[in-house]
Amino acid sequence: MSETVTAATEAETFSFPQPRTCPYRPPAGYSALRANGPLAEVTLYDGNTAWLVTRHADARRLLTDPRVSSERASDGFPIITPRLLGARWFRTLVTMDGEEHSMYRRMLIPDFTAKRTKAMQPDVERIVDDCVDRLLAATPPVDLIQDFASELSSRVIFHLLGVPTEDQATFQERSVRLLRAADSEEAEGPLSELVAYMDQLVSSRGSGTGTWLLDRLSGEEVAKGELDRGDLIRMAVQLLVTGQGTTAQMIALGMATLLEHPDQLASVRADPDTVPAAVDELLRYLTIADMAGLRVVTEDIEFHGRVIPAGSGLILPYALLNHDPETYAEPDRFDVRREPRQHFAFGFGPHNCLAQGLARMELEVTFRALLRRVPSLRLEKPLKELRVREAADMQGVYELPVTW
């Protein structure tokens, strides 16, 4: 007979999120969570509890289980930071389930196909080269995040959406403010400003004659009544904020990780054909979107002889799962020739990242350009001296000073 999991279980209770001390390594506390077994009870900042999954194979199964929901507004959904309180009601593709989620996802697929990504590559290469030009024109040291990676990732998303060049600086400033917000109150202002601007931008479209995402969806889906205008605006804001923030950190921390592992850096320099595999290993090793695996259980689920009751919060920390020794040999070793398969850097299941092809291409183009054009790039400060982003946020740092 299965044992129902309750707050009264005798298993040790951990706090979550676990604090970070290293910019590119998972929290040290993840080791104790894994040693606790496949399931651990964790206590959140507000005193609520949730259930945390520690094994890669279990997470793959649960992320495809229809009884596991992404609806943030549902009772029991694990709110791991006060900053997420205001976003509970901001419905986007990542907070939808079932047929509703599938319908909206199908509308976005044409903008993220392999063919579309390949067609965008020359534009991405142009943007990257221009950003490297600006970097080299500056006087070092410079902040690789704010002075390079953030601008680059923003411009790629602006290009995808069709944001006019003259509006991009203001748009980027608001998205950065949102990403840096400490709580829901501080996030409310920039989020409202982004929504208002996007509303105006959508109003200026609608003919369907443009080539970018907003042109197509405004002209096709909204005009036909298939897509709600408000949902289009929220989709665009989500693409901007998540794409800009995670990609900027991946670029900056990816280069920092290579610089901190000179043998691996030398391997990539010696054989540029290894860049795609190196990008995948960086995605696994860093797992910027560690906190994207938050779910709520809608029906009882039997799990390793227990029953997780409906209404329970479920946490699948992607960085912990991407360092599972049962899946990856020596998971804490950075190896650019590993070619890691089935990692969770882009999630898994129905909510796997739709833009992962674009993200991979952007990262490959950027790392190739930096390695070729700035061969003497080096860290201005040791990584251990940098301020690490809060535990409940994406993996990363607030600044990354470099010189060359």
TrEMBL record:
Belongs to the cytochrome P450 family. This is Pentalenic acid synthase. It is an enzyme of class 1 (oxidoreductase). It holds the Pfam family p450. Its EC number is 1.14.15.11. It comes from the Bacteria. Transmembrane segments: none annotated. GO terms for molecular function: oxidoreductase activity. Keywords: Heme, Iron, Metal-binding, Monooxygenase, Oxidoreductase. Gene3D superfamilies: Cytochrome P450.
